[in-house]
């Protein structure tokens, strides 16, 4: 449950009307009128203006992210998808996503993408971009002479039972 609650908190980080908290009931003494349950885990929603009347989510164990989101939306009107869309521009700026896409685009255009029989061209592109992300300074094994860059072709010999046969 904790990873799902943390994921929900990240998704709603840009939503000022929602604060998500995890409280360890074994380490914190809280009024029993808010937490009368004798079992853990349990989930409570304290709605602004109604903090003395928390809403308990029934059967919290086994809930999915979508179920937690739906519970929150039902009682607050806050939609997780809209909160994520609202936070996306700041997220992109913080992690420099635009710069990363520019770098990957330049890397893809700077070197030939090897086509391999039996693999889609998109797989070759993905492989080249993956190599670039692992080490941007590593030259492509396909730069330069195409013959030198080609993988070795296995040499097959005819198998015979005569050790003196050519």
Would you kindly provide a written description of the structure presented here, covering whatever features stand out?
With 166 residues, the chain is mainly alpha-helical. It has 2 domains: 2-86, no CATH class; 96-136, no CATH class. The protein has helices at 2-11, 65-76, 80-95, 97-110, 121-134, 146-149; strands at 43-45, 55-57. A two-stranded antiparallel ribbon has the order 1-2. It is elongated and about 90 Å long. Mean pLDDT is 78; it is low at 145-150. Residues 144-166 are annotated as: Disordered. InterPro entries: Thioredoxin-like_sf. Residues 146-159 have a biased composition (Low complexity).
Topology, element by element:
Elements: H1 2-11, E1 43-45, E2 55-57, H2 65-76, H3 80-95, H4 97-110, H5 121-134, H6 146-149
Antiparallel strand pairs: 1-2
InterPro entries: Thioredoxin-like_sf
Biased composition (Low complexity): 146-159
Region (Disordered): 144-166
Brief write-up:
The protein is mainly alpha-helical and 166 residues long.
Number of strands: 2
Strand order of the largest sheet: 1-2
Total domain units? 2
Mean pLDDT across the residues is 78
Q: C-alpha Rg, in Å?
A: 28 Å
Low-confidence stretches: 145-150
The structural class is mainly alpha
Determine the N-to-C terminus distance: 69 Å
In DSSP terms (H or I, runs of 4 or more residues), the helix count works out at 6
Global geometry: elongated
Biased composition (Low complexity): 146-159
Region (Disordered): 144-166
InterPro entries: Thioredoxin-like_sf
């Amino acid at each position: 449950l904790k990873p799902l609650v943390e994921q929900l908190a990240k998704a709603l980080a840009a939503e000022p009307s929602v604060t998500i908290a995890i409280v360890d009931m074994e380490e914190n003494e809280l009024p029993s009128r808010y937490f009368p349950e004798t079992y853990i885990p349990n989930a409570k929603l304290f709605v602004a203006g109604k903090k003395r009347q928390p809403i308990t989510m029934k059967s919290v164990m086994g809930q999915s992210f979508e179920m937690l989101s739906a519970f929150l939306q039902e009682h607050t009107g806050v939609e997780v998808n809209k909160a994520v869309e609202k936070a996306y521009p700041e997220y992109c700026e913080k992690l420099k996503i635009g710069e990363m896409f520019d770098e990957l685009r330049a890397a893809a255009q700077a070197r030939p993408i090897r086509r391999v029989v039996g693999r889609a061209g998109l797989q070759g592109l993905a492989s080249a971009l993956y190599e670039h992300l692992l080490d941007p300074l590593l030259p492509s094994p396909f730069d330069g002479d195409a013959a030198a860059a080609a993988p070795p072709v296995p040499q097959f010999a005819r198998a015979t039972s005569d050790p003196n046969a050519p």
